[in-house]
Amino acid sequence: MPTADAVSRLVQELNKLPGIGPKSAQRLTFHLLRAPEEQTRLLADAILSVKQKTRLCSVCLNVTDADPCHICRSEQRDHAKICIVEQPQDILALEHTRAYNGLYHVLHGAISPTEGIGAGDIRIKELMERLESSQINEAILATNTNLEGEQTALYLNKLISPLGIRVTRLARGLPFGTELEYADDVTLTHALEGRQEF
Ligand SMILES: [Zn+2]
Description:
This protein is α/β, with parallel strands linked by helices.
């Protein structure tokens, strides 16, 4: 690259981030080059802090700066319900709805035979240990609605149901704002099967 080494180094590093192509990496690099030094220092510090000052909650495996995390410690939350998600960012999405007040468990992945990811590669063991020694009476399977998420949900249902815990799955149906004629067959079938009393 016909530019300073430091510039091409930052372009290369940014280019490794998901969703950042070579053009975007260049644009961000030159933006930072023009930005006040204070702003770049804050950014660099925030990047380091996210690695150095966070860890996984020993109970739910969510990313936290205090252990147990504030959700696991909260007395305002319903400790009889657990929502099982693939990634920590799924918790952010669910919390944003304010529609759920129970606990969580993060699997850190999903079962995917094609990618060689088995049940032992994600945090199922921790989940089962937790369920066996808790007052949880409902497990909500909130894995993604793709092949891996469905396989993981099926597997978890087989493990959890025998414990006498009610197992539920997030409803699958039409996204808000959908026009029926454009919905795909799988989504429309799930929406029909999951129809509720009005
Ligand atoms: Zn926690």
